């Protein structure tokens, strides 16, 4: 049986974990890595070095490949469109990937689909005009509001909460407005920075959204093949800190079954309308009340996602194996949980370099823990790994105890215990 070649742009931990599953399935993963010692390069035999905006490197990457996929959204759309026109199966397609790359495109598509999301508006102009537009939006929807850069944001970057009109006059908000106005002026005079380049170019407009008073954050994860088959994992609860997902619990404890069905409907609708291929993650705000639960779409990702790391040890098919199957149009695996509850805790770099013996101590602390390390150099706040822990508990006390155990393992890895 010949091994199909799957080309992946990006050499971080997501590509690294794809390689683990590719090896098991006999798939030849060819990964375009940013550096020869990066996370994915350490475990992938076929790992040419290059950037997503290097047309020659990308063309060499896809030579002989059955499909091209990605571990991040920051791609060169024009190049992907050209490759697709030349017959390269680009999955997800550039048209679908745009909804994960461009928050304005996503908001428009979600509105067109009639799905729930926060009130929003695009703002542009000089700094004074944008202040007036934000003020008018807040007059209709209330303070605080959320400013977002349409492209290039991740892990809390490119997102800013603004509490009042006076906060727009100085500090970070004022810097955003001035920079956006300057970029727009430059675009108008010389045609540069208009959002067509890798990462979106200079930001020439901003997105303003009503702040949702959510009670917790959720995510629905699914995978879709080109032939249309869809497989959905249970809806999970995620905990964010400084814009970074730090914990997940699967399934989301105590979630209203009607809300879980709505979340799945949202994910399926987006996947089908946008013709998504591969894994799709839909991040959601939940506003829970005794009478009902209201959901609002926050962001999309079209690749394996932090909210799905629990599937490596808590589901019959992991998100990484499923993504490979989906983009190669292979039958999808079962998404059935292997335990009543799975907790995932991210391992972020601590304030100082941890001692050399932390792995041994972490394994000794909790023999049931599944520790996944990314092979990255330590840096404060950097994602270095995650810990999964399954449990038969479904009650708040039992789940809470397992979360504490997983946190304890991470604390040891960070050198804090």
UniProtKB/TrEMBL annotation:
It is an enzyme of class 6 (ligase). Pathway: Purine metabolism; IMP biosynthesis via de novo pathway; 5-amino-1-(5-phospho-D-ribosyl)imidazole-4-carboxylate from 5-amino-1-(5-phospho-D-ribosyl)imidazole (N5-CAIR route): step 1/2. The keyword Ligase applies. The keyword Transcription regulation does not apply. Gene3D superfamilies: 3.40.50.20, ATP-grasp fold, A domain (3.30.1490.20), ATP-grasp fold, B domain (3.30.470.20). It catalyses: 5-amino-1-(5-phospho-beta-D-ribosyl)imidazole + hydrogencarbonate + ATP = 5-carboxyamino-1-(5-phospho-D-ribosyl)imidazole + ADP + phosphate + 2 H(+). Belongs to the PurK/PurT family. PANTHER family: PHOSPHORIBOSYLAMINOIMIDAZOLE CARBOXYLASE, PURINE BIOSYNTHESIS PROTEIN 6/7, PUR6/7. This is N5-carboxyaminoimidazole ribonucleotide synthase. The lineage of its organism: Bacteria, Bacillati, Actinomycetota, Actinomycetes, Actinomycetales.
């Amino acid at each position: 049986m010949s091994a199909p070649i799957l080309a992946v742009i990006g050499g971080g931990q997501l590509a690294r974990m794809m390689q683990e599953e590719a090896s098991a399935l006999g798939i030849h993963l060819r990964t375009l890595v940013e550096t020869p010692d990066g996370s994915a390069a350490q475990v992938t035999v076929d790992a040419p070095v290059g950037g997503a905006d290097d047309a020659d490197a990308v063309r060499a990457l896809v030579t002989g490949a059955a499909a091209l996929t990605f571990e991040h959204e920051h791609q060169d759309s024009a190049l992907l469109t050209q490759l697709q026109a030349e017959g390269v199966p680009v999955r997800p397609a550039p048209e679908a990937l745009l909804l994960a790359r461009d928050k304005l495109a996503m908001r428009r598509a979600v509105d067109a689909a009639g799905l729930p999301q926060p009130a929003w508006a695009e703002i542009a102009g000089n700094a004074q005009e944008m202040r007036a537009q934000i003020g008018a939006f807040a007059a209709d929807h209330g303070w605080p509001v959320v400013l977002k850069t349409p492209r290039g944001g991740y892990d809390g970057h490119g997102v800013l909460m603004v509490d009042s009109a006076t906060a727009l006059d100085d500090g970070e908000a004022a810097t955003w407005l001035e920079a956006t106005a300057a970029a727009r002026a430059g675009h108008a005079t010389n045609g540069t920075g208009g959002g067509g380049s890798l990462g979106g170019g200079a930001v020439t407009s901003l997105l303003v959204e009503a702040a949702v008073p959510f009670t917790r954050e959720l995510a629905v994860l699914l995978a879709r093949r080109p032939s249309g088959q869809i497989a959905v994992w249970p809806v999970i609860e995620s905990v964010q800190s400084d814009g970074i997902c730090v914990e997940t619990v699967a399934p989301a404890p105590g979630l209203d079954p009607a809300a879980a069905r709505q979340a799945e409907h949202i994910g399926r609708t987006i996947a089908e309308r946008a013709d998504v291929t591969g894994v799709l993650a839909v991040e959601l705000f939940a506003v829970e009340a005794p009478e009902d639960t209201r959901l609002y779409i926050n962001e999309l990702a079209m690749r394996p996602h932090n909210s799905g790391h629990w599937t490596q040890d808590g589901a019959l098919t992991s998100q990484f194996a499923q993504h490979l199957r989906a983009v190669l149009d292979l039958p999808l695996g079962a998404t059935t949980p292997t335990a009543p509850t799975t907790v995932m805790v991210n391992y972020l770099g601590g304030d100082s370099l941890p001692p050399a013996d932390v792995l041994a101590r972490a394994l000794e602390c909790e023999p049931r823990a599944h520790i996944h390390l990314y092979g990255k150099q330590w840096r404060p706040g950097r994602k270095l790994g995650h810990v999964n822990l399954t449990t038969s508990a479904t009650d708040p006390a039992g789940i809470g105890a397992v979360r504490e155990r997983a946190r304890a393992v991470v604390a040891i890895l960070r050198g804090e215990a």
